[in-house]
Design a protein that fits this description.
The chain has 171 residues and is mostly helical. Helices cover 67% and strands 0% of the residues.
């Protein structure tokens, strides 16, 4: 409310212009399936927590030693961030906005790395947000799919479809 009062009622991502993709229904279905599975797994990982995915003998240790878990998650976040040159840090708003404008080429695996980084930060108890990172993960999945299919100038439409599909699945 405060942001709207100060800046006005502007769209969160402005400047989108796109055209219908060839076989639009197929793209909507593929985006829905891929991002539906990825978003469903994402929300399941967030909900169940780190202990649910650890070996049985470690689960009680993980539940009792939250600071150790936070430390390990911090190390994993730092490794991901170092490998992807900081692109997994923060919400990813700028990368998603650039992908919507067709002006961003995500490094291979960035969608999975951002997915993991968001889960790790949540498990550490320090999430910087879920909404915008979910949009960013969807945007990176869409950018990867568009790059694989060589959509060129129409890649931003695939990005938009995947952003909506991932967010819908994650929430």
């Amino acid at each position: 409310f405060i942001q709207v009062a100060i800046q006005g009622n502007n769209p969160y991502f402005s400047g989108f212009q796109g055209h219908e993709l060839p076989n639009m229904l197929m793209w909507a279905a593929v985006s829905g399936i891929v991002c539906g599975v990825a978003g469903g797994l994402f929300s399941s990982f967030l909900y169940r927590g780190a202990a649910a995915f650890a070996p049985v003998r470690w689960r009680s240790f993980i539940r009792r030693h939250l600071l150790v878990v936070a430390f390990v998650m911090g190390i994993l976040l730092a490794l991901l961030g170092t490998f992807y040159q900081g692109k997994t840090y923060g919400t990813g708003y700028h990368e998603a906005a650039a992908a919507l404008k067709g002006a961003y080429e995500a490094p291979f695996g960035l969608a999975a790395a951002k997915w993991a980084a968001t889960v790790f930060s949540y498990w550490a108890g320090i999430p910087g947000g879920i909404f915008t990172p979910s949009l960013t993960i969807g945007a990176m999945i869409g950018e990867h799919m568009a790059s694989f299919a060589q959509l060129g100038d129409a890649s931003n439409v695939a990005v938009l479809l995947c952003m909506a599909a991932f967010l819908a699945a994650a929430t």
